Amino acid sequence: MPERFINMGYWEIVSRQMSIVTKSQQERFKDSKITVIGCGGIGGSAIEMLARMGIGKLTVIDKDYFDFSNLNRQVFSSTDVLREDKAKVVKDKLRLINPYVEVEAKIEEINENNINELNNSDIIIDALDNLVTRVILSRFAKENNIPLVHGAINGTLGQMTVFDKESTKSYEELFGLPSKGKELTDDVKNEIRSLSYGVPPVIGPVPNIIGNMQAFEAFKYITGIGTIVRAPKLLSYDLLDLNSFNIVEL
Fold first, then answer.
1. Nearest in space to 70 (alpha carbons), one of 105, 41, 42, 91
2. What pLDDT sits at residue 3?
3. What DSSP string runs through 108-172?
4. Which long-range contacts (CB under 8 A, 24 or more apart) does 144-150 make?
5. How many helices (H) and strands (E) does the chain have?
6. Residue 5's pLDDT is what?
7. In whole angstroms, what is the distance from residue 81 CA to residue 227 CA?
């Protein structure tokens, strides 16, 4: 079958958004590669929406597997995939959502030894729950001039921003981390870890909202539509207070 007919399916999938973006803008998105680090509550929602919006290439990274505690929020979790690797499950399920997306799944944890694998990404989405890894990732993205879409949640709270070459503050600067300007020695890493207080509480919609917003921010960034929420600006909310949806500057 001619390629033009094969690709018609792609354009059918994205047809409802084509009155919002031009064909050339959508083609930029189709030709882009996004890496999502974390396939859980935040990352799973970001990944699904990127696929539905028509991203061309996705790399999904997670070292963990699904368990019962993931079912309250993680869109790719279900009772038939418990104990299976998240990244592999995501890749398999994306084939059913949008077969036109080229997906690479990596079952690993990002660290100083393998982070250079991300250097061919057009954008990186931070869906992590680990502060040390976030610092490593944010430094790598800054050094390699790769836009980083940050998202995080705690309980009913959510936040999102983008770090790129136009940002006036780095991730460590924006959130006042003690590692700012220091070499990441074991002592500094332990100091970062001391800022975390165990596994944070979470209720389903909170990470899903953040993940969807991160996906759309990446879509905006690549297509050029809209205004980017760029650091030091931060979008934040508390779902228990609908008046709290706001963009603040830190």
1. 41
2. 59
3. S---TTTGGGGTT-SEEEE----HHHHHHHHHHHHHTT--EEEEEEEBTEEEEEEESTT-SS-HH
4. 144/119, 146/118, 146/119, 146/121, 146/122, 147/122, 147/123, 147/218, 147/221, 148/123, 148/124, 149/123, 149/124, 149/125, 149/214, 149/217, 149/218, 149/221, 150/126, 150/231
5. 9, 8
6. 53
7. 38
Rounded to 5 degrees, φ, ψ at 146 are: -110, 120
Tokens encoding 16: 């409802």
Closest CA to 200 of 44, 99, 69: 69
- Which residues of the chain are under the pLDDT cut of 70? 1-6
66: CB partners within 8 A, 6+ apart: 74, 76, 77, 78, 81, 82, 83, 84, 86, 89
pLDDT digit string, tens, across residues 139-167: 999 999 999 999 999 999 999 999 999 99
Nearest in space to 218 (alpha carbons), one of 167, 163, 171, 139: 163
